[in-house]
Specification:
The protein has a single domain, classed as Four Helix Bundle (Hemerythrin (Met), subunit A) (Up-down Bundle). The chain has eight helices and four strands. By secondary structure, the chain is mainly alpha-helical.
Length: 259
């Protein structure tokens, strides 16, 4: 590393150097791309704020923060591809952000809302979910080049987080005490964790081209879906997350049995 990369007084470097493909070979480049990493940072902040809000008993704020993190996480990769700013640093940063926003944060939110009433069993189940999220992300990283782009192997961590926070939001919005449904929370949390590390296939929707032309009816359907969501967001979010999880699980099992 060159001497100018260091702070003269402390000797601490604040630079990132990574290889970038140019002319068929990797060339070292300094710095990171700003735009996609800002989206990733926003997703990380959403997960972190969700943890803080749940510790203060503000469960609806916690859920909304993680929901926003999911939206930002879905945008950072697309922004990077659209602006041709993909990088190894961005991919690693996104994975670490996901482990917090969709692994640790949902686990702590549902623990603070419901699982804490189960004592040691509650925090153990919350930890298992968080560990499964990290394992799922690690497996995704090592299989990303060979994986089927149209399907995820295992439930994606944002979808699993949606299942967890959907339950919390539904309960908090309807005045249900988390301790009263602790065993349901335990079941949903364990199911989400196991599905993440399973070999079941779930649709990824990555084949949808948001830059191309679509039939007019597609826009109409999107407007209707948005209207339905905003009628009762807690119920709709939980219903969508649960339906997606069960649909992927049942379709995978049906394919395996008929194969």
């Amino acid at each position: 590393m060159e001497p100018e990369d260091f702070d003269e007084e402390s000797g601490v470097t604040f630079e990132v150097v990574e290889g970038e493909m140019e002319g068929g070979r990797k060339v070292p480049r300094k710095g990171v791309y700003l735009l996609p990493n800002l989206f990733t940072t926003g997703a990380l902040f959403g997960g972190f704020y969700g943890i803080i809000a749940s510790m203060n008993g503000q469960f609806e704020n916690a859920v909304i923060a993680i929901l926003v993190a999911g939206i930002l996480d879905g945008l950072d990769g697309r922004v990077a591809r659209m602006t041709n700013t993909q990088s190894d640093f961005g991919a690693e940063y996104d994975s670490l952000s996901d482990s917090i926003a969709f692994g640790v944060a949902p686990a702590l939110v549902i623990f603070n809302w419901s699982l804490s009433s189960l004592g040691k069993v509650g925090w153990m189940v919350a930890f298992i979910y968080a560990a499964c999220a990290c394992l799922r992300l690690a497996r995704f990283n090592v299989q990303v080049e060979s994986a089927d782009k149209t399907h995820f192997t295992g439930l994606s961590s944002p979808a699993a987080a949606g299942l967890i926070i959907g339950l919390v939001w539904f309960g908090a919005d309807n005045g249900i005490a988390g301790g009263d449904v602790a065993y349901l929370s335990l079941l949903i949390t364990m199911m989400a964790g196991v599905l993440m590390v399973s070999n079941l296939s779930f649709p990824s929707f990555k084949q949808i081209d948001f830059r191309g032309r679509v039939p007019f009816i597609t826009i109409l359907i999107a407007v209707i879906l948005l209207a339905v969501f905003f009628i009762d967001p807690p119920k709709v979010l939980f219903a969508i997350a649960l339906s997606y999880s069960l649909f992927g699980m049942l379709m995978s099992l049906w394919k395996k049995t008929h194969r």
